[in-house]
Amino acid sequence: MKVTLLTGRTLRQGQGKEYGKLSERYLKSVAVCEMDPDDMKRLGIRENENVKIATNYGSVVVKAVKSLRAPHPSAVFVPYGPWISLVMSSKTHGTGMPSLKGVTAEVNPAPTEPVLSLPELLKRHFKKE
Amino acid sequence: MPIISNVTCPVCGSLCDDIEILVENNKVVKVKNACGLGESKFLNYNGHRLRKPLIRKNGELVEASIKEAIRRSAEILADAAYPILYGWSNTSCEAIRVGLELAEEIGGVIDNTSTVCHGPSVLSIQDVGYSTCTLGQIRHRADLVIYWGSNPWSAHPRHIERYTAFTQGRFQASIWYRYLAHLSAYRARRRLLRALKLSSVREAPTIEAEAGLPPTLFRKERKMIVVDVRRTRTADIADYFLQVEPNKDYEVLEALRALIRDEEIDMDTVAGVPVETLEELADVMIGCKFGVLFFGVGLTMSMGKLRNIDTAICMVRDLNRYTKFIIMPMRGHFNVTGSNVVSTWQTGYPYAVDFSHGYPRYNPGETSVVDILARGESDASLIVASDPVAHFPKAAVENLVRNPVIVIDPEPTPTTLMADVVFPSSFVGIETEGTAYRMDHVPLPLKKIVEPPSGCLSDMEILQRILAEVRKIKRETAEVA
């Protein structure tokens, strides 16, 4: 399903990072995708099931959660963090600032793919000799 | 047990300076007055921290002495042709000053996190200027508060309570009671809708939103409006929430400018908002006595970027023909304003300063860190109190970790995991004192409330030692030559 991807801060993300970025609490607060409940129905996804968010620049698997601020059809919200950064473009259009909000993306169910932990994610995507 | 009062909270740009902290045996045991973010930091900072310097050897990070780590970092930086020095918004102004000296010494690029935050706002302010004031003025006088593309409930949790709608100002009363009434009405509406959905009624009637702006907006007392692309917690509190389509803020701002200048708009809707609503909104803005527009990264990170801010500032300028209106960016990290201010004192430029020619150059888009990384031009980096591996786009991170990375940070982050040298530092505002700038450019002192663990130096001390070592290496090389 085609969506507009929005990113931002949440209170839980802000608290999660103070508990440590390697903590379970941080993972649970940022590796999530807040979706409109009607969109979730349309895709056949239930709360806490995995979804894959893909853009032209990459893809990542996170957990879908029902948005408490619906309706916002075909707009999904993901808190800032290492997971969602994987799908962002580094183009800044000469401003120094990459576009991190209002990004066109594709969201689909990913029942067989896991949400990677932070060390796994870094190992899979970035090489360090 | 000592209670330390008037502590400045080192989390967000609101820099609340009324925190009370109970300390027992050099440990924070109780926090008063702080928000969820501040309390989490004061109570948990020590639970997951780095305590020993680390150096990458054979692909693994291993413990090292501070002397060894300083020497290794100085060698990396002295050898580098085009190093980047990034971060700075979670440390003190004193540390940033040393960082700038180091950047000049090694001919690097020094950039702070405003590059991926309010960098476009800085560019617009340089282009068109802006009318602003301190938060104290707003607290006592503002009768119209607008948050545009900003969610202070989540990112600056006490902003509304301390500086705007929920604060009891000298000339403006708090609107707490209205919020409570508003909240219970909103909850009742949701409960009703849910009950109708669950009941046997096949087609639940939808509750039509009332046409036009709510009457509270036309009263003399204080009012709050939220404009955003999605309903946020802040929007739930506001007297009125205006939802615009993503990436269309520019259109709405331009339409409002036209309406404020009494021009006609030949459209029914702009970015999904009926023109009549915008007309009424323009009336509310013109009709206030002291209006303030707080804007967040909702404007800087979406399409248009600095042009969105240009228009917002121009709209405020137009409004000042009729009334008093000011505009202020909602700065994120506690000292991101300070990093802009110190950089401007020292170099003339607020961020993205390139010393590779021997003198400061500034050209965001070219000398900004994300662009340098995307082009793969840097060959080493020093990251201070920041986590670019978690927050930069993938292509930029790939080029960052390909080269040596030195990190100064009190806690383990994705960036420290990918680093070559890691320095555990003390927490500024908890274990080290310093100065930070609030979002309205008011400098506030950060207190030291507990002693840092042995071996954890302050950011400033670590930077001073690296700088001294770099100078020593340069002298040695000059002597050999």
Structure keywords:
heterodimer; A: 129 residues; alpha/beta; Barwin-like endoglucanases; six-stranded mixed beta sheet; 5 helices; 6 strands; 26% helix; B: 481 residues; Rossmann fold; Dimethylsulfoxide Reductase, domain 2; nine-stranded mixed beta sheet; five-stranded parallel beta sheet; 19 helices
Radius of gyration of chain B: 25 Å
Give unreliable regions of chain B as ranges: none
Oligomer: heterodimer
Number of strands of chain B: 21
Class by helix and strand content of chain B?
Answer: alpha/beta
Helix-strand string of chain A: EHHEHEEEHEH
According to CATH, the fold-level topology of chain A is Barwin-like endoglucanases
Summarize the largest interface: chains and residue counts: A-B, 51 and 68 residues
Q: What's the CATH first level of chain A?
A: Mainly Beta
Strand order of the largest sheet of chain B: 5-4-19-18-17-6-7-15-16
Q: What's the story with the biggest beta sheet of chain B?
A: 9 strands, mixed
The biggest beta sheet of chain A is recorded as: 6 strands, mixed
Compact description:
Chain A is of the alpha/beta class and 129 residues long. Chain A has five helices and six strands. Chain B is α/β, with parallel strands linked by helices.
Task: Break the fold down into its secondary structure elements and pairings.
The complex is a heterodimer of chains A (129) and B (481).
Chain A: E1 2-8, H1 11-18, H2 24-30, E2 32-35, H3 37-43, E3 50-55, E4 58-66, E5 75-79, H4 82-85, E6 103-109, H5 118-125
Parallel strand pairs in A: 1-5, 2-4
Antiparallel strand pairs in A: 1-6, 3-4, 3-6
Helix pairs in contact in A: 1-2
Chain B: E1 3-7, E2 19-24, E3 27-32, H1 36-44, E4 54-57, E5 60-63, H2 66-79, E6 84-87, H3 93-106, E7 109-112, H4 119-128, H5 135-141, E8 144-148, H6 152-155, H7 159-163, H8 176-198, E9 223-228, H9 233-237, E10 240-243, H10 249-260, E11 269-270, E12 273-274, H11 275-287, E13 290-295, H12 297-300, H13 306-319, E14 324-329, H14 336-347, E15 353-354, E16 361-362, H15 369-375, E17 381-384, H16 388-391, H17 394-402, E18 405-408, H18 414-417, E19 421-423, E20 434-437, E21 443-446, H19 459-480
Parallel strand pairs in B: 6-7, 6-17, 8-9, 8-13, 9-10, 13-14, 17-18, 18-19
Antiparallel strand pairs in B: 1-2, 2-3, 4-5, 4-19, 7-15, 11-12, 15-16, 20-21
Helix pairs in contact in B: 2-19, 3-14, 3-19, 4-13, 10-11, 10-13, 15-17
